[in-house]
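Support reply, case 0932

Customer input (verbatim):
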Amino acid sequence: VNAASIDQQPILVKRGESVQVEIVGSEFTLHYQAIATEAGRMGDTIRVKFAGANGLLASTVAGHGKVRIID
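Our regenerated output:
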């Protein structure tokens, strides 16, 4: 895959957008809503912020409006 084809992939998560977060562990899967703090394409690592939380979590773009965190 060359850089030009990566740049042509659509942006699936927009900065400020509410996203569905899937947190995957060895024996569990949880779903939450969060706000994307940056835009991203499939497979990009972006940071998300949960309501009421001070910190940001790194997550991987997994689809339109969806990110995944694997524990």
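We compared this against your earlier run and they match. Two observations from our side: DSSP finds one helix and seven strands in the chain. The helical segments are 3-7. Please reopen the case if you see a mismatch on your end.
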